[in-house]
Amino acid sequence: MNICHPNTPTLISQRDSLLKKTMRPDPLPYDIADEYPIVLNSKNSSFSHCMMESNKIVAHANLWPRELQLQQKRIGIGLIGNVASHPDYRGQGHIKTLITHLTTEAKRQQLAALILWSDLTQFYQKLGFSSVGNEYRITINADAIKNFSQASRQFLPTKPEDLTSKELNQMLQLRQTNSTNTLHRSCEEFATLLTTPDCKLLCQYDKAEVTGFAIIGKGYDMVAVIHEWGLSGINDIKQAVYDCRELLDSPSITLLSPGVVDEKWLEEFTRASAIIERHPMALANIIESSLIDKESLDQCFIWGLDSI
Ligand SMILES: CC(C)(COP(=O)(O)OP(=O)(O)OC[C@H]1O[C@@H](n2cnc3c(N)ncnc32)[C@H](O)[C@@H]1OP(=O)(O)O)[C@@H](O)C(=O)NCCC(=O)NCCS
After folding, report:
1. How confident is the model at residue 178 (pLDDT cuts 50, 70, 90)?
2. pTM here?
């Protein structure tokens, strides 16, 4: 078994073409690496793990060490993503071996747990992962959204490159009020993640202060999904949904939210005939049970820009 980081331009382009071929069936106007501006950045090749056979990448996975803000503590965890094997090399146990390798690597880095997002629940269960946390997916159609107008101050499209670190910090603070147990993210990381193609940021201002924001879209994923927000009441939420729909002109908007929300918000969306679904937030494998337990992970929510 030979697992390495893609630390040459040739290996990086081989990795990106494997991921594009296996994960992006439709042609896209941007490269897959642009969709993951941190973990697939050529400067961060240590986050990429490639399984090699005769100088060819046969399988790939990212491991991104992050810090989970849990009550007053910060705990190291690893995010796994961009898991794929070459179509000619499937069913040979390469992904199993790679995930086992990442578990060993995470132990070496003293990470408490591994977290990933996948529909292949059974596959990952066999590797020790189980569902954690909860999230709401609230889908509202365009007709109902029309009645959301003028609920509060407007949310306007904002260019990420124009944001100051004060504004980015204000957004991180606003987001924190909706979910305290989440990943720590620096302003620099936030600014980089906002460069993801097809990711739109809408901000609400009171004079020079950011008072609310919503982020919709993220590359190939999360089309018409508000996956990250800092909104302080139902009127702001309705207005943000309204302004996002106006911007995208989409037939519906989905709002992704932590699994614990004000009952009144849900009542309001029920009145608007929204489809309200509650799902597990992610799959996790606890590596160091003295550092974290399932109950703590269940209280966490990871926002869209962090999921890989
Ligand atoms: C899903 C994928 C990564 C599996 O790769 P692989 O190289 O076949 O995986 P392995 O050989 O290590 O694992 C084989 C095991 O996974 C199971 N498996 C493979 N693909 C599966 C799928 N789509 N759904 C459920 N189980 C699957 C096999 O049944 C086998 O189980 P077993 O050990 O009990 O026999 C690969 O098909 C792929 O790259 N798909 C496209 C990209 C993708 O969907 N990535 C997943 C994102 S999380």
Report:
1. low
2. 0.95
